[in-house]
Amino acid sequence: MSQAFILRDYQTQAVDAALAHFRRSNDPAVIVLPTGAGKSLVIAELSRLAKGRVICLAHVKELVEQNHAKFLATGSQAGIFSAGLGQKDSNTKTTFSSIQSLSANLDAFHAPASLIIIDECHRVGLEDSAQYSKTLAHFRSLNPDVKMLGLTATPYRLGNGWIYQHHYHGYARPSAQSFFKKCIFELPLQYMVKNQYLTPPIHYDAAVAHYDFSLLTESLDGEQNTDDIALNELIHQHPRVTKAVTEQILQLSQDREGVMIFAATVDHAKEICGYLPEQQTALITGATKIKQRDALITAFKGKKIKYLVNVSVLTTGFDAPHVDVIAILRPTQSISLFQQIVGRGLRLSPGKKDCLVLDYTNNGYDIFQPEIGEKKPTPDSIAVQIHCPQCDFANAFWGRKDAQGHILEHFGRRCQGLIDTPVGETQCTYRFRFKHCPYCNQENDIAARQCQHCNEKLIDPDDILRKALNLNNNKVLRCAAITPVINTAEKSIKITYHDEDGLTLSETFRFNYKKARQRFNDLFARRIASGTQSVYFDSLNELQDFLPYLPTPDFVIAKKQKHHWQVTERLFDYQGPYRKANSLG
């Protein structure tokens, strides 16, 4: 029987991408669709088209119920296996199940499946990893060729990384251990808004006060390992902020229908509720009992409650189209999670023109910004596009720009582009930041401990510094600047290193010697403009115009000789506990 609904163009493209991928491969694949894009319709259509048995997994009963309902709209029948929904049907051709219920009852599923679909698949490998691993291994034992497809709006999690390895647009992700091998389709949020599939977000930037979460030393990823004690202490240091913020939310939402407020901690959420009208406010946390939670959500969806305050429980699997205000009072260093939160208010609803986004955390994210896959290295970092000089792939990295919009620096390490080779696609080898192996002189990641080329152990820069600091005949310079001077007569360039107190060290590279010329190019030329230019100097004349752009190392180490100090190490791109020049300790 044909489906009783019509897929949008991008939903059809997602379905076609999955069919094309699984016709040629059994590798687990991912489809990335923004919140509100209708993943359940893609799941329904793929389940309808599958010739064999289909198992559709989700981590909350609301998603199980929602995906099941969309599938019934195709005119086909399916079963539900979920303790939370009070149904355990394991014998139908298509079964929608919660991962918790199915993983605990694998003996009820003894027939092989041809397709496993995982909604919110970014959770594979996180707190549900044991359940998913056991379940997927079970179905692979029944059918080694079972196809596995994940769908998510957030393919990246701080602390865990990207959930797939390769992207169909031709770039790699640094995630060799991820379960999913390839992202086969992705739709940007901007496309959804531009084509009126989602409500436009209006970022209101007139906050009366902000929380300065940058004071926290804890690395916050939005969902895992958040230090509630540190958060509460910071929030309680500024009691007037919460009151002022809540009053502004009330003022700006007077003519709005549904307000979702994302709090940092349970104590914080309770304080927020204390400033909101009691009869129009509900609070949901991880400790809220299921029946009470269901009743509160039903009341909110029915517009009997206007303000819904929550703590890390309604970022996924929640659908209330009338929501037209999103207030963010909690920190996150994840662009994906920020977009997921805002996405709760972007669904279309009759009479809804836009969604007001109130960010009181100074997150500074653009809702349409691509996920970079790293924490912001500096508060003023923004997404920049950096072309690889080797393969010309346009990388998205964190970077800094000046007032005119020119890129001052970027923080990318390795090109993410994929290169076609006789054995298939492989990641481009070009590195923007690197450490040289002292044994084979090949480039490695700056955090690598073993050379990927010769397998020799790479010396840890912290060990180098620690050893140098403990030896009387060594000098360690926190380098703040360099002065390069060319001596044409001697065919050499002298580099003088300056520390923050005016002390100096120097060394000379003689360009009439091949090894010295190569050493200079390895150290300096390769790092000009953070490696965004492919530069090599054969002569001092070529070098002259580039002197202002030579990079400065973070540390320089010299060893005492009879009458002078000989530079032995220059540490670039240092990341560690030792303070660099002109930075607070």
Describe the structure.
- It is built from 14 helices and 30 strands.
- A hairpin with a 4-residue loop joins strand 26 (474-487) and strand 27 (492-499).
- A 10-stranded mixed beta sheet has the order 4-3-5-2-6-7-1-12-10-11.
- Helix content is 24%, strand content 26%.
- The radius of gyration is 28 Å and the shape is globular.
- Residues 215-226 have low confidence and may be disordered.
- The longest helix has 16 residues, at 9-24.
- It has 4 domains: 9-187, P-loop containing nucleotide triphosphate hydrolases (Rossmann fold, 3-Layer(aba) Sandwich); 196-359, Rossmann fold, CATH 3.40.50.300; 382-427, no CATH class; 435-571, no CATH class.
- With 585 residues, it is of the alpha/beta class.
Offer a quick outline of the entry.
The chain is α/β, with parallel strands linked by helices and 585 residues long.
Please outline the helices and strands.
Blueprint: H1 9-24, E1 29-32, H2 39-49, E2 54-58, H3 61-72, E3 79-82, E4 87-88, E5 94-98, H4 99-103, E6 115-119, H5 129-142, E7 147-152, E8 156-157, E9 161-162, E10 164-167, E11 171-172, E12 180-186, H6 189-194, E13 201-204, H7 228-236, H8 239-252, E14 258-263, H9 266-274, E15 281-284, H10 290-301, E16 307-310, E17 323-329, H11 335-343, E18 355-359, E19 382-387, E20 394-401, E21 407-410, E22 418-421, E23 424-427, E24 435-436, E25 443-444, H12 461-469, E26 474-487, E27 492-499, E28 504-510, H13 514-523, H14 540-543, E29 555-560, E30 565-571
Parallel strand pairs: 1-7, 1-12, 2-5, 2-6, 3-5, 6-7, 10-12, 13-18, 14-16, 14-17, 15-16, 17-18
Antiparallel strand pairs: 3-4, 8-9, 10-11, 19-20, 20-21, 22-23, 24-25, 26-27, 26-29, 27-28, 29-30
